[in-house]
Inverse folding.
């Protein structure tokens, strides 16, 4: 679930500076920590629900006008995101290992973030129910996110998956 490395022309994605948390004029440190925790949880829950084939739960993490970009395609809105993930083969087994989550609080109602991920993938055809053989991750990438506070709480307004390294097919 990643975009090819760089832009459609093949150029490398632009480097981003590390996010810096800023407090709004009336925001306390505690309020900033709550925003940061909420946004971090969205990033981790996205990976968990994708890995477990929970398309409806993934879609619920997005704002009504939210978008998910991967592999050069933009998927608009929770219904389209749910539709895309619902087509995922039942035998596809993935695990996203998320790390280096950084959240930049723009204001009381908006934040941006960046999460590194390792993606492991396999075919779950193991009828014995045991663990699959461990392969190297297929990619190391990053999610570049925008978050927004809605009446239903914090949601992802934009998530872009960018591949940084990909295992060679040799």
């Amino acid at each position: 679930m990643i975009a090819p490395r760089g832009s459609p022309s093949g150029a490398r994605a632009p480097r981003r500076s590390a996010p810096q948390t800023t407090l709004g004029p009336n925001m306390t440190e505690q309020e900033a920590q709550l925003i940061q925790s909420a946004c971090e949880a969205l990033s981790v829950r996205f990976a968990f629900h994708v890995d477990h084939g929970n398309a409806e739960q993934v879609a619920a993490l997005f704002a009504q006008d939210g978008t998910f970009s991967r592999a050069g395609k933009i998927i608009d809105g929770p219904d389209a995101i749910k539709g895309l993930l619902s087509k995922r083969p039942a035998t596809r087994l993935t695990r996203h290992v998320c790390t280096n989550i950084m959240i930049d609080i723009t204001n009381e109602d908006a934040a941006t973030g960046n999460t590194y991920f390792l993606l492991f993938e396999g075919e779950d055809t193991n009828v014995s129910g045991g663990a699959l053989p461990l392969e190297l991750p297929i990619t190391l990438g990053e999610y570049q996110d925008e978050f927004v506070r809605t009446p239903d709480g914090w949601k992802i307004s934009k998530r872009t998956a960018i591949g940084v390294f990909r295992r060679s097919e040799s």
Helices lie at 29-51, 55-60, 77-86. Residues 1-11 have pLDDT under 50 and may be disordered. Strands lie at 62-70, 73-76, 92-107, 110-123, 139-150, 153-166. The longest strand covers residues 92-107.
